[in-house]
Please model this.
Amino acid sequence: MRITISGPPGSGKTTACKLLSERLGLEMVVFGRIFRELAQE
Model:
């Protein structure tokens, strides 16, 4: 199952994602974090 959450910066996307992943027992993947890590490389 994939659930996509989108919205402007600071709108609580990561918080909503964390709560959903805990409640549903799903892996949480935050693409903003991935993009920031790639940019640092």
About this structure: The longest helix spans residues 13-24. The chain has one domain: 1-41.
